[in-house]
Design goal:
The complex is a heterodimer of chains A (317) and B (337).
Chain A (H helix, E strand, L loop, with lengths): L1 E14 L2 E14 L3 E5 L6 H9 L6 E10 L2 E2 L5 H8 L4 E4 L13 H12 L4 H14 L16 H12 L6 E5 L7 H18 L2 E6 L2 H7 L2 E6 L2 E7 H6 L4 H8 L39 H5 L5 E2 L4 E3 L5
Parallel strand pairs in A: 3-8, 3-9, 6-7, 7-8
Antiparallel strand pairs in A: 1-2, 1-4, 4-5, 9-10, 10-12, 11-12
Helix pairs in contact in A: 3-4, 3-5, 4-5, 5-6
Chain B lengths: L4 E13 L4 H6 L5 E13 L3 E5 L6 H8 L7 E6 L2 E2 L5 H8 L3 E4 L13 H11 L6 H14 L6 H4 L8 H13 L5 E5 L7 H18 L2 E6 L2 H7 L2 E6 L2 E7 H6 L4 H9 L39 H5 L5 E2 L5 E2 L12
Parallel strand pairs in B: 3-8, 3-9, 6-7, 7-8
Antiparallel strand pairs in B: 1-2, 1-4, 4-5, 9-10, 10-12, 11-12
The chains are: A alpha/beta (317), B alpha/beta (337).
Chain lengths: 317, 337
């Protein structure tokens, strides 16, 4: 069953120089207990898409068009109060990029998690603290460490504490924005394992936002690849990584060196991602695409269904 | 590849003293130190790319900086083409040698002076080293350096400032600055970790191209063992100030011997959703370098830790084919004990 359906979402940032089209006509769905990976380079609009779903846009960010349906209710049209009372943290919560460094330094972690519970639910402080302790246990932090302060914890533990905080009000969906970028590989693997375990134990859905495609290959069941505000390829991870269709996906997957398999030449993409104030006409990837044709310069490709449940927006197909 | 050794490092040690408050200093007999690098030895051959891999805080950057004396080592010996670097005077003799030894820093947003034009940035090493007095030759060499790194046409970049360039372009300027003196040895400290994936591989290609062109030896510092596999001829893995294993890249990746190397390789995500891999469970995080564990420094997290690991530090052991492993699991003859 589809939990979240995003359809034709357009989110622009209003600046003096014009509208920055950060998210431009993006559609995807997340079903219950599914993990979707949202990948792309910096500035491709993946975080903006997440902030739109959370309705946490900065004052110059506007949802211009499209729907974000959670169990059929359109979040994009809800009022701020309704979002705060019904959706945010209770149904959808988010682990922000660098959140482990945003913990309040003078409150202990148990207190900070309890605060999120108290804010959203009618429980007393004692119960909230008790639940905070249980949540920490769930992510692998001993209950005795509940009253530790952030500076007493290592990076990996802080990241787990933030994960516990996202779980505070039993959400159905968690959006994790680059949850492991600041961590070392071994700790990163530990945190990813905790996330996977939580997903199966609590029937959670995840949206994992990252620039690291390998992480998506290891943790997600479906993936959407974004480029310059648009999704260029979308589908199950296995066919996507075994036979990527879009030239950008092909390049991106082989741009990362791997520790397994033969040592291969890394592919590179010439040039730079476009300025989203004035994205190129036609396909946005055409200035950097090795297979660009005449039509790519003029006409924007529409989503086509490839073989094996893959969707791709490219004139080659 | 030639077998001449360009750089030898013997037992390099760097301790950073910790500043104490007034009363603490009175009551403590011995000032505590951060044991950033604690007895590291390796050598880098001519035209070789030697990788130094480890997690943050393992001392890899400090090692790199010690080699070009941006950090003064506490102890040890660094021999570059026969000259003992640490006995040279820093301002006079060593400065001359720096012409042959350069470094590329991690963050191109901080390593370029924002008030200098690209021309000034790249020509500065030539002026400091007084390579030539002729302004025309300097201009030629700067243009050539930009062309080598695919910043073309050079005229378009010469009088721009760093803030006008993208991250990838900036790092290429930093590489051009390092190569303009045609160094024989280069320390590259995570040169692409700040760049996006699609740009990263392009910069790496250019770096490899420059290395081939000038036959430079490299110390390539990275936390990414997959990347070091792609770039390096040999790899040393560091943990808490010590090298735990060093071997040729293929040996190390295909058959890691030290439990830490095994864990490091197992933890790297791979871009293949169907890959079935052995999971090596390592608990906890790197202990503090102020009071590193006794015995083997990895024993607190090692899944194979034995009694001896807690007490005795394992010496590096020759395992054949130039491989060294510092672990009690292995006997001297290369057999598992």
């Amino acid at each position: 069953m589809e939990l979240l359906e995003v359809e034709n979402l357009k989110m622009y940032y209003n600046t003096i120089r014009g509208n920055v089209k950060a998210v431009d006509d993006v559609s995807f769905t997340v079903s219950t207990k599914e993990s979707l990976g949202l990948a792309g380079e910096s500035g491709c609009g993946k975080t903006s898409a997440a902030l739109s779903i959370m309705r946490l846009l900065p004052s110059n960010g506007r949802i211009m068009d499209g729907t974000i349906k959670l169990d059929g209710d359109d979040i994009a049209k809800m009022g701020d109060k309704e979002i705060r009372q019904k959706i945010r943290w209770k149904r959808i919560s988010m682990i922000f990029q660098g959140a482990m460094n945003a913990l309040h330094p003078t409150y202990n972690i148990g207190h900070q998690i309890a605060e999120a519970i108290l804010e959203h639910e009618a429980v007393d402080k004692k119960e909230a603290l008790e639940r905070a302790g249980k949540l920490l246990e769930l992510v692998g932090i001993e209950p005795s460490k509940t009253n530790r302060y952030p500076h007493e914890l290592s990076g990996g533990m802080k990241q787990r504490a933030v994960t516990a905080m996202a779980l505070a009000c039993n959400p159905d969906l968690i959006i994790a924005d680059e949850p492991t970028t600041a961590l070392d590989v071994i700790v990163q693997a530990q945190v990813l394992r905790v996330m996977k375990e939580l997903q199966s134990r609590l029937d959670l859905s995840w949206i994992l936002i990252t620039h690291d495609l390998s992480m998506i290959a290891e943790t997600c069941s479906r993936a959407a690849i974004m480029y310059a505000g648009k999704i260029v390829e979308y589908g199950d991870v296995v066919p996507m990584f075994k036979g990527p269709l879009h030239p950008y996906t092909q390049k991106l997957i082989t741009a990362f060196p791997s520790v397994i398999g033969p040592r291969t030449e890394l592919s590179s993409i010439h040039g730079f991602p476009p300025d989203l104030l004035n994205p190129p006409r036609g396909c946005r990837f055409h200035p950097r695409c090795p297979q660009a044709m005449e039509i790519c310069r003029n006409k924007e490709p529409v989503f086509a269904k490839g073989t094996r449940d893959q969707y791709v927006a490219c004139h080659l197909y | 590849m030639a077998n001449n050794v360009t750089l030898e490092v013997h037992n390099l040690v760097k301790y950073f003293p910790i500043k104490l408050g007034f009363f603490k200093a009175l009551t403590t007999s011995e000032a505590p130190n951060v044991h950033a690098v604690d007895g590291v030895s390796f050598n880098i051959k001519e035209e070789e790319i030697f990788g130094l891999v480890g997690e943050s805080g393992c001392g890899k950057t400090t090692t790199g900086r010690c080699l070009v004396r941006l950090v003064e080592p506490t102890k040890g010996e660094v021999v570059f083409k026969g000259s003992h670097l640490l006995s040279l005077s820093l301002e006079g003799e060593f400065r001359k040698l720096r012409r042959k030894m350069q470094i590329i820093f991690q963050d191109p947003y901080e390593s370029l002076n924002p008030r200098m034009s690209i021309y000034d940035i790249i020509s500065e090493p030539l002026r400091i080293q007084k390579v030539t007095g002729s302004e025309r030759e300097i201009a030629e060499r700067v243009s050539q350096a930009l062309e080598d790194l695919d910043l073309v046409p050079p005229e378009e970049f010469l009088y721009r400032f760093p803030h006008e360039l993208s991250g990838g372009q900036r790092q290429r300027v930093a590489i051009a600055r390092a190569f303009v003196l045609r160094p024989e040895f280069l320390v590259a400290d995570e040169p692409v970790s700040m760049l996006d994936a699609s740009i990263r591989s392009e910069v790496l290609k250019l770096l490899l191209g420059m290395q081939k062109k000038f036959g430079t030896s490299f110390l390539y510092i990275t936390h990414d063992i997959a990347l070091s596999r792609h770039m390096c001829d040999r790899i040393a893995v560091m943990y808490l100030g010590k090298i735990v294993e060093q071997a040729s890249t293929d040996d190390l990746i295909s058959k890691p011997l030290h439990p830490y190397t095994q864990a490091l390789i197992a933890a790297v995500p791979v871009p293949d959703p169907t890959a079935r891999r052995i999971e090596v469970v390592i608990k906890g995080e790197v202990p503090s370098a102020i009071n590193p564990p006794q015995g083997c420094r990895f024993h607190t997290r090692c899944p194979h830790a034995m009694e001896i690991c807690r007490k005795k530090e394992p010496p590096p052991m020759e395992m054949g084919n130039g491989r060294l492993v510092a672990c009690h699991l292995y006997g001297s003859k290369g057999s598992k004990r």
